[in-house]
Amino acid sequence: MDAAAPPSPPRHKIPQSVLVVIHTAALDVLLIRRADAEADHWQSVTGSKDAEDEPFAATAAREVREETGLDAAAPGCLLADWRVRNVYDIYPHWRWRYAPGVTRNVERVFGLRVPPGAAVRLNPREHTDLVWLPWREAADRCFSPSNAEACLLLPRFAAESDARKVTR
Q1: Alpha helices (H) in the chain, listed in sequence order
Q2: pTM exceeds cut of 0.70
Q3: What is the C-alpha separation between 123 and 80, in angstroms, rounded?
Q4: Are strands 104-113 and 16-23 parallel, antiparallel or unpaired?
Q5: For 34, left (φ over 0), alpha (ψ -120 to 50), or beta?
Q6: Residues contacting 108, CB < 8 A, separation 6+
Q7: pLDDT in tens, 114-149
């Protein structure tokens, strides 16, 4: 008789994540409401790496697909690494998701330009509603200071992304 395999240890989140500001060329920003938070908890797409060696760009594309159904590589889309790095304290009510003693997260910021009218399909386990807002209004609606700041940086980084695309 074979002995039962020992239970696997709980999988902790990796404290390295992405923030993806999804926007149109007109700088309208997609915000989504978290299912596991208060009603006014609006944000851009966020998510942690699945593995330490997963590139941030791959994490960004995966999280966008999982949370919104959008394909960052689809025609008319442009995923851009803004090379902005935020380090922040993990909210105490979410620290249980991380290994004991982990209290800080490193977040890399990306922008994803999508065509107007892009069909968003929210993952209902993660998000309950969506809204498209002009970038300044989106910044005002974000619960997270780093997300609000990213929305305010959108005009600069969207222009830089377009310039890099043209000169490639």
Answers
A1: 56-68, 135-141, 145-167
A2: yes
A3: 23
A4: parallel
A5: beta
A6: 16, 17, 18, 19, 56, 60, 81, 83, 84, 85
A7: 999 999 999 999 899 999 999 999 999 999 999 999
